[in-house]
Design brief:
single chain; eleven-stranded mixed β-sheet; Rossmann fold; 19% strand; 36% helix; 940 residues; 32 helices; DHBP synthase; alpha/beta
Length: 940
């Protein structure tokens, strides 16, 4: 008999499948769609589960959905009516989805499963699904059950008891009083994203002091001795609005919420510490009450609050319960599994026998990939790798690389179910390295430096390093334990006085990379039964180093879900500073990839040597070879000499175009108005975030192949060049303006972007070798020259055969509204600047607003162009048209999933005219800009 459980439409959609009560497969939809916390129907996860079981949807006996949609809609309506009309905005936003899908779930499930006959559907309550996910896979014959989260239908927390194949929920807390929502309110208030940033708040808490704890108890929450509580809704807005907190909340806690781009200050750390301590105290009171009420020595936990591993660790050490088991996928995703188990045991009455350890098989329930699939993919992208057919040789190689301090991406076996990487899709490192935590946070995950990492430790050694009982397990990384005193490092008096993030820089133990500032660690115990090859790798590292511990964090970039396929693992490896990628038996070393070799620079007599650049540069005066001598470069064919200033080679050479040439005027303009400039507190993370918010930069970052040589002509202050160089590519950015280039180089050097370099160059006299670049980008430059086609012809010569050129220009039609705004600005003396769409954007710094205004409205020269004109340029210089933004056909939409470098229809003259007519309105938002992409014909 087959039972499928589903969670969908709210957060972390997932599917789980049982065959005769055994868990066959479970997976979250986000891993397949690559949309973090995807809430759509889990079609891909369902397909995987069915394939893993070898059945079709027609062979399912029961399908369970993890909550009652009608009851949830009842809560939505009652809440709106209670606060009307204040809640209208959120109600209006939610209602279409409810009327379209959520109230018609059987129909939606039929459609999603593609079944020709109506399945037998079961709709348990939300917290009943959580409770089932906690108890039925647990190793206990009987146990108390506690669930805590934001809100289900009406319930925000519950407890009960399970025995054998039955469970019963006896007590519950009701909306709007919710410990999960209290924690999420502080998550939002401190500038993190709800349903994603709670981990960050928990990790930030040890840097702070509980200065606001008394205020939380005084104003927000009244907690009774049994752990039940009442919250004052005057301080919150989640019932009636689209935000979590009210003005009254802001008055109590000292001001408005932190914007995500603002720096984290001591106040935010203190807020995090305060609400974390309140949450711990409430959970402890509830747990002790549950122990008294149920009399059980065992406790099972689920719900989003159960992922607060710091509170779990306190609960484990409190001793109210002898043993605690937490569902690895404790959030809504785990509800899919709980629903399936509830049907099998509670509804169908099947016998249950608790298994030693647990029934979840290490939570390794997702897809796996064969070595043939992996090597086929690696060959298709030209990756350089080695294959070790003998596992012993593979483990020796990887353990040795880890011992050298390399960061390793580890991809093996079935993917984990739940939010934690447990040794199948993990990033690994040496915990003894003081630099490892910051290095992985800042240059691999591109996230906040304060985020802690978990130690994975051989189970038999856990109690020697951490305050754990000798037989205590933590295979799912859901308990925090203190590092034992004998492994801690003493701090001197000055070091103990440091506060905030400054404390991060102090090694606090012999395993500093996994020791948080309060001497705690989120422990994962590794055993042979659950962890297989990962256990054997850890054993090999222990044998080589004497250390039975590794850093283990999830294998993903911070804005993406954990990797699912080899393709995503390779992308993450090449997009970050992971040193080594292990895909089953294949080992890829970053140093062996071409772009990584190009980044190597060395200090030599007279200054820095840059072989990758010196291979490409040419004399802009005559095209001869350049030879570097100290801080100058001499041409071998003419008397020209060029200098390096502030790390930038000045290879600019004036071209003579007569009285009409405006190169020097444009150069002077940008020296005064560097564009597009950087925001205050710019970091790699913020640069990536802003770049990925725009379709164009994101697609270039995702689709320009790794190991490519990229040239950006007219790079300005270098944001795009630096963004592209974060991935494993060689990027050269050139511009006329030294002030812009200084900002680009400053950011590059401060953040260690070794694969980017910047040159001062006149595009009419290129200082680079012909036909050496895979991609040449020229965005918003040619229309500021006196001869746009001549400039295009110059840079087109730099593209290698079969390479691509990407040229962005002002469009004649798209610029019409901007021209009208310019006249209004002049007439008003600049007082109507607010009518420009970019200048109205929230969160844009004053410097960037000024740079945009100058570039758009004060520029000394610009020309305007059409799609047909650029197509003529392509034809005359040997390029085939590939793609355009917007499309060259009026009916051809440009989707976020567009493949920029795959050929599309060129369209007729009429098509292009209609497409450009639409730019009168749509182009106004981006200054009337359009992009054309061409591919250089291969030499015959």
């Amino acid at each position: 008999m087959h039972v499928l459980g589903l969670s969908a439409f709210y957060h972390d959609s997932a599917a789980a499948l049982l065959r005769d009560g055994e868990i066959v497969a479970a997976a979250q939809e986000e891993r397949f769609t690559r949309k973090k916390h995807d809430s759509s129907f889990p079609a891909h996860a369902v397909r995987y589960c069915l394939e893993a079981a070898g059945i079709s949807a027609e062979e399912l006996d029961f399908v369970g959905f993890y909550e009652k949609p009608l009851t949830k809609f009842d809560r939505l309506l009652e809440t709106y009516l209670a606060y009307a009309p204040a809640g209208y905005a959120s109600f209006r936003e939610a209602l279409p989805l409810w009327l379209g899908k959520k109230l018609h779930l059987p129909r939606e499930l039929d459609r999603g499963l593609g079944a020709r006959e109506r399945r037998r559907y079961v709709f348990p309550e939300h917290h009943e699904s959580h409770a089932a996910s906690a108890f039925f896979p647990s190793p206990f014959d009987e146990a108390a059950i506690l669930t805590l989260d934001g809100v289900g239908e009406w319930t925000t927390g519950s407890f009960g008891h399970g025995r054998g194949n039955r469970l019963e929920i006896s007590h519950e807390l009701r909306f709007p009083h919710s410990l999960g929502l209290l924690y999420s309110a502080f998550t939002s208030y401190t500038g993190f994203e709800i349903n994603d940033g709670e981990y960050k708040l928990m990790g930030l808490a040890p840097y702070g002091r509980p200065l606001y704890k008394a205020a939380i108890y005084e104003h927000l929450i009244d907690v009774k001795e049994d752990g039940s509580f009442w919250m004052d809704m005057a301080y919150f807005r989640y019932c009636q609005g689209l935000v979590m907190t009210s003005e009254a909340f802001e008055r109590v806690f000292g001001g408005p919420p932190r914007r995500p781009d603002e720096p984290i200050r001591q106040r935010h750390m203190d807020l995090a510490r305060s609400v974390q301590e309140v949450a711990e105290e409430v959970i402890l009171k509830i747990a002790r009450h549950v122990r008294r009420e149920t009399g059980s020595r065992n406790l099972c936990l689920a719900g989003g609050v159960a992922l607060n591993c710091v509170a779990n660790g306190i609960l484990a050490r409190d001793g109210a319960f002898e043993k605690i088991w937490v569902q690895p996928a404790a959030g809504d995703a785990g509800g899919a599994l709980g629903t399936a188990l509830l049907v099998w045991y509670q509804l169908l009455g099947n016998e249950r026998r608790a298994q030693a350890g647990d029934a979840q098989r290490g939570s390794l329930l997702g897809p796996s990939f064969s070595q043939r699939e992996i090597t086929t993919y690696l060959d298709s992208v030209g990756a350089r790798y080695e294959v070790h057919d003998e596992e012993s040789a593979l483990l020796d190689r990887v353990a040795g690389l880890l011992a050298e301090g390399r960061v390793v991406g580890w991809f093996h076996g079935r993917m984990e179910f739940g939010p934690r990487a447990l040794g199948s899709r993990s990033i690994l490192g040496d915990p003894r390295s003081p630099r490892m935590q910051s290095a992985i946070n800042l240059k691999v995950k591109f996230r906040e430096s304060f985020r802690p990492f978990a130690p994975c430790v051989l189970r038999e050694h856990a109690a020697a390093y951490f305050a754990m009982e000798p037989d205590q397990e933590s295979p799912y990384m859901l308990f925090v334990a203190p590092v034992k005193d004998e492994h801690r490092l003493a701090l001197d008096e000055d070091e103990t006085l440091r506060s905030g993030i400054e404390r991060l820089k102090l090694p606090r133990s012999a395993i500093p990379a996994v020791t948080h500032v309060d001497y705690s660690a989120r422990v994962q115990t590794v055993d042979a039964e659950r962890h297989g090859r990962f256990r054997r790798l850890l054993e090999r590292f222990h044998a080589q180093t004497g250390c039975p511990i590794l850093v283990n964090t999830s294998f993903n970039l911070s804005w993406e879900p954990i990797v699912h396929r080899p393709e995503e693992a390779y992308h993450t490896f090449m997009q970050s500073d992971i040193d080594v990628l292990v895909l089953e038996n294949a080992v890829l070393v970053k140093d062996a990839q071409r772009a990584k070799r190009d980044e190597r620079r060395a200090l030599a007599a007279g200054g820095e040597r840059d072989p990758a650049l010196e291979e490409l540069w040419r004399c802009p005066a005559c095209g001869g070879e350049l030879a570097r001598e100290g801080e100058s470069a001499h041409c071998s064919s003419c008397p020209a000499v060029f200098a390096r200033e502030d790390g930038i080679w000045q290879l600019f050479w004036t071209h003579t175009r007569g009285a009409g040439d405006i190169t020097e005027r444009v150069k002077d303009f940008y020296e005064e108005h560097p564009f597009p400039n950087y925001d205050e507190h710019e970091s790699l993370r913020s640069l990536i975030s802003k770049s990925r918010q725009g379709h164009y930069a994101r697609m270039l970052g995702d689709q320009i192949p790794y190991n490519s040589r990229v040239l950006e002509v007219g790079c300005g202050t270098g944001q795009l060049s630096n963004f592209l160089a974060i991935g494993c590519r060689t990027v050269v950015g050139t511009d006329l303006c030294m002030n812009s280039l200084r900002l680009a180089e400053k950011f590059r050097s401060e953040h260690g972007l070794a694969r980017a370099r910047f040159l001062q160059m006149n595009l009419f006299r290129p200082a680079l070798a012909s036909e050496h670049f895979d991609v040449v980008l020229c965005n918003g430059v040619l229309h500021h020259t006196s001869d746009p086609f001549g400039g295009f012809r110059s840079i087109a010569a730099l593209v290698r055969p079969s390479g691509h050129i990407v040229v962005g220009l002002y469009n004649r039609f798209g610029r019409l509204l901007r021209d009208a705004r310019e006249k209004l600005f002049k007439a008003s003396g600049g007082r109507l600047r607010w009518i420009d769409p970019y200048l109205r954007k929230p969160g844009v710094s004053a410097a960037k607003r000024d740079a945009w205004y100058a570039d758009q409205y004060l520029h000394p020269h610009e020309s305007k162009h059409t799609m047909g004109e650029v197509l003529d340029w392509f034809d005359q210089t040997g390029f085939d048209f590939v793609n355009a933004m917007p499309k060259t056909r009026f009916e051809g939409g440009f989707s976020p999933q567009e493949q920029l470098f795959e050929p599309s229809a060129r369209g007729s003259a009429t098509d292009r005219a209609l497409a450009q007519a639409r730019l009168v309105f749509t182009g106004s938002r981006e200054g009337g800009f359009f992009v054309m992409i061409g591919r250089k014909r291969a030499a015959t």
